[in-house]
Amino acid sequence: MDLEKVQKLQEIVDGSSNIVFFGGAGVSTESGIPDFRSQDGLYHMKYKYPPETIISHSFFQANPEEFYRFYKDKMLVLDAQPNAAHKKLAKMEQAGKLRAVVTQNIDGLHQKAGSQNVYELHGSIMRNYCTRCGAFYDAEYVKNADGIPRCSKCGGIIKPDVVLYEEGLDERILTASIRAISEADVLIIGGTSLVVYPAAGLIDYFSGRCLVLINKGATGRETRADLVIRDPIGEVFSRITV
């Protein structure tokens, strides 16, 4: 742990009341949720079909049973708990320092930690809707359903409110995220390698005072950053006081 860099992050946090946090899978791996691209991630698991095929819109429509077999097994993680990063970000919001969290994650852990203003670019496993009548169902209903979860009202297939491959991002969420980032004084990016577009392109809307990157691996935007920390994000945030 580079304590000198952590101290610099502390000074940045202390000096701003208009921070936006943009996070990826690395924020949740410390809560036990696998990411997609690491050596132990979902892309390296052996299934009948590649994960990126299974979690696509066309596959969901053509083979919902196989989709849900994978989704329930590997993506519908309901017992995960917020880690130090989630908790500290919630405290920063409560202290009036953090304006918004923009996340690529679908696990709902930011809200579970107490964050209020969260923009979920890729949706959430916590929200599920009938594809026929639009009725809402929680994650437990989907998890406990035998095979394909079906609507108790009309019998339609239930779909997670998660952005699958081949689907576009929610324009309202995208617009709100762009606005928050473009108006921020400080942008802290954590737990993402900034390779998934269009989400990774959101950094281009930032024109504020200070850009911070926190990620265990290298990212493609480090030359532009004012501070780069190559340590686990939960450990970094556990050392920040608000």
UniProtKB/TrEMBL annotation:
Q: Is the keyword Disulfide bond assigned to this protein?
A: no
- GO MF, any single term: zinc ion binding
Coiled-coil stretches, from where to where? none
| Binding-site residues for NAD(+), renumbered to this chain | A25, T29, F36, R37, Q104, I106, D107, H122, T192, S193, N215, G217, I233
Residue positions annotated to bind Zn(2+) are C130, C133, C151, C154
Report the PROSITE patterns cross-referenced here: SIRTUIN
Cofactor(s) demanded: Zn(2+)
Task: Tell me the residue numbers annotated for binding nicotinamide.
Answer: F36, I106, D107
Q: Main role? A: NAD-dependent protein deacetylase which modulates the activities of several enzymes which are inactive in their acetylated form.
Q: What's the protein called, per UniProt?
A: NAD-dependent protein deacetylase
Q: From what organism does this protein derive?
A: Porcincola intestinalis
Whichever gene encodes this chain, its name is cobB
